[in-house]
From TrEMBL:
Keyword field: Membrane, Transmembrane, Transmembrane helix
Protein name in UniProt: Transmembrane protein
Residues annotated as transmembrane: 7-24, 63-84
Domain of life: Bacteria
Length: 87
């Protein structure tokens, strides 16, 4: 595999995984709020009867967010190296 292909994989796949994880959790939150008429506990990932404070996704999963973005930056660098190299 060339640097460009590996770079493209590293650039795209982590972002898609982050979006997938985020939207899976968002669907659980919306189901709790709209169907169960409850309040989402972000730290325990459960639906509760009493209001819960909002905790951002990056605070709850910092290694997933920062690691995924770091891998994407490495992929961007590999793409740039692969495209810069003369054939």
């Amino acid at each position: 595999m060339t640097r460009t292909r590996i770079g493209l994989i590293l650039l795209v796949v982590p972002v898609l995984l982050l979006l997938g994880l985020y939207f899976v959790e968002l669907s659980q939150i919306r189901e709790c709020q709209l169907v169960d008429q409850g309040h989402w506990d972000y730290l325990a990932a459960q639906c509760r009867d009493n209001p819960q404070p909002f905790v951002p996704w990056i605070i709850r999963h910092p290694w997933v967010v920062n690691g995924g973005l770091l891998i994407s930056v490495v992929g961007l660098g590999l793409c740039m190296l692969g495209l810069y190299r003369r054939r």
